[in-house]
Amino acid sequence: MDHNLDFIDMLSERHIQLRRITEKLWNDSSDIHLSNSEWFIMARIYKNQPTISYVTKNVDISRQATHKFIKQLEAKGLVEINNVEHNKKDKYLRLTKSGQECYEKNEALKASIEKKISDTIGEEQLIIFKNILKMDWGL
């Protein structure tokens, strides 16, 4: 990591590094290849049955791209698209059994990365860092 970067760029570099590592770990252990955007959408669906419009409003991805990713997830057998009762326009989403298994396996991979970070920088440091990330930064 370039130590001359400012805070925002350092945070961005670290985020990109972690996303690459999680993506590689997943792709090395699974035949189902998923993009970060697809994982982000699956996270909104996991243990919920949100409508497509809810997911579209709550991910920082364009409406068109979100619809494309949902269709891709459906084609991969990870997401079901169902009609909302008494509403012909809206549809709700649910992870299939396979989708749930993929999501939980990926969560376990991320937990192993977090454990490695904790072992390296110290559990207390990681807890402090996570608490700082959760704080209201007044932005």
Task: Describe the protein's architecture and organization.
By secondary structure, the chain is mainly α. The protein has one domain (34-134): Arc Repressor Mutant, subunit A. 64% of the residues lie in helices and 11% in strands. The chain has six helices and two strands. It has helices at 7-29, 36-45, 52-57, 63-75, 97-121, 123-134; strands spanning 79-84, 87-95. The protein has a two-stranded antiparallel ribbon with strand order 1-2. The longest helix is centred in the last third of the chain and has 25 residues, at 97-121. It is globular. The two termini are 26 Å apart. The mean pLDDT is 91.
Summary tags:
single chain; 139 residues; mainly alpha; Arc Repressor Mutant, subunit A; two-stranded antiparallel sheet; 6 helices; 2 strands; 64% helix
CATH class assignment: Mainly Alpha
The CATH superfamily is Winged helix-like DNA-binding domain superfamily/Winged helix DNA-binding domain
Order of helices and strands: HHHHEEHH
Side-by-side strand order of the widest sheet = 1-2
Whole-number count of domains: 1
Could you give a short account of the major beta sheet?
Answer: 2 strands, antiparallel
Structural class estimated from helices and strands:
mainly alpha
- Please state the overall shape, judged from the principal axes of the Cα atoms: globular
Tally of helical runs: 6
Average pLDDT rating: 91
In helices, the fraction of residues equals 55-70%
Percent of residues in beta strands?
5-15%
Strand tally: 2
CATH fold label? Arc Repressor Mutant, subunit A
Uncertain segments? none
Please report the distance between the alpha carbons of the first and last residues.
26 Å
Architecture per CATH nomenclature, i.e. the level-2 architecture: Orthogonal Bundle
Q: Taking Cα atoms only, what radius of gyration do you get, to the nearest Å?
A: 18 Å
